[in-house]
Amino acid sequence: MAEQNINPEQLKALQEKIKQMSPEELKEFQKKQCIFCQIVAGKVQARKIYEDDRVIAILDINPANPGHTLLITKEHYSIMPQIPDDEVAHVFMVAKSLSNSMIRGIDAQGTNVIVANGIVAGQRAQHFMAHIIPRKESDNVNFVLPQKAMGQNEIEEVGNKLIAALGVK
To answer: Is 0.70 surpassed by the pTM of this model?
Structure first.
């Protein structure tokens, strides 16, 4: 949303209007503001490489590597926990096929499949997507996950909290 194009009073009024919206109205509002929903609707051009009734895969316009693909749901969801389980399964089956097509079709030596859930995780667009990035040796794309030392007690404590949140016994 282009907040810099409206004055403070208009912004405050918009924020109030958003607070008053029902979940359905809010979802519709988000769809109208979302560039990826516009791509799904055919209102914004993108290079499609796959489409079915649930998802669309497009080439990223600012790729990490040639062939970097964005796999987006046709329905607007901001983050993965909002997506029904059967749709999540479908997304990752398509991601698997796209990864395989990169290995066969553009001689990728591997792929990264990445989902960022939330701004703190690096999510920049408020529409769920999976990035499928073809990789080759010495491609200068570096994903480095830090490795932090944790004591056994801390591991147990975090594990117990996660198990409790899952509802698993």
So the answer is: yes
pLDDT in tens, the chain (169 residues): 444 567 788 767 766 766 776 777 666 667 777 899 999 999 999 999 999 999 999 999 999 999 999 999 999 999 999 999 999 999 999 999 999 999 999 999 999 999 999 889 989 998 999 999 999 999 999 888 889 999 999 999 999 999 999 986 6
Residue 64 located in a structural domain: yes
Whether residues 99 and 53 share a domain: the answer is yes
Could you tell me the residue range of the domain that residue 2 belongs to? 1-33
3-state SS, the chain, equals CCHHHCCHHHHHHHHHHHHHCCHHHHHHHHHHHCHHHHHHCCCCCCCEEEECCCEEEEECCCCCCCCCEEEEECCCCCCHHHCCHHHHHHHHHHHHHHHHHHHHHCCCCEEEEECCCCHHHCCCCCCCEEEEEEECCCCCCCCCCCCCCCCHHHHHHHHHHHHHHHCCC
Q: What CATH number is attached to the domain comprising 104?
A: 3.30.428.10
Count: domains in the chain: 2
